[in-house]
Amino acid sequence: MIISYQGVDSFKISQGNLTIALNPQAKTSADITLFSTGRSETAEKSGFIIDGPGEYEIKDIFIKGFLSEAKDRINTIYLITFEGMKLCFLGALANAELKAETLEALEDIDILFIPVGTLDPAKAYKLAVSLEPSVVIPMHYNKAELDQFVKEGGTKAVPIDKFVVKKKDLEGKEGEIVVLKEE
């Protein structure tokens, strides 16, 4: 699996010839496109589009969407089961207090995408730790917010171009912060 960062809260996840786009900021070609805060004009010709809560199965990928809060609109948290890994995309989440039923469903997360700037870096780190992912990928931040988030984790993170990962690579990892460079 290859994860690349398109900026703000936008990612592209590829495995073989299958691509998932998360909150694409520009026109993109993907088999599955997820929007956490509603559909965008960029969604045209983007394969199967999901823009809200529910349960979906597309091409052996299982997706569950959970309703949550963004600053001035509704946000959907997505739990994506793909290639034997669970990816949790928090979108534009604005409240670190998640509903009990959402917390219960977000178990055994391998990779967590967390908005550092919309939550506040300290609250974002506390939420990330509570969800116990193997890897944490910060998003939606400025440099100061990212620096504070990484500092909360007590580590240093060197940005990388792409995150290439297999399930076996995650064994023994607990909350490792992976910072991706914007493409």
Automatic annotation (TrEMBL):
Matches recorded under InterPro entries: RibonucZ/Hydroxyglut_hydro
Annotated Pfam families: Lactamase_B_3
Gene3D superfamilies: Ribonuclease Z/Hydroxyacylglutathione hydrolase-like (3.60.15.10)
Superkingdom, natural source: Bacteria
Stated name of the protein: Zn-dependent hydrolase
Biological source species: Candidatus Zambryskibacteria bacterium RIFCSPHIGHO2_01_FULL_46_25
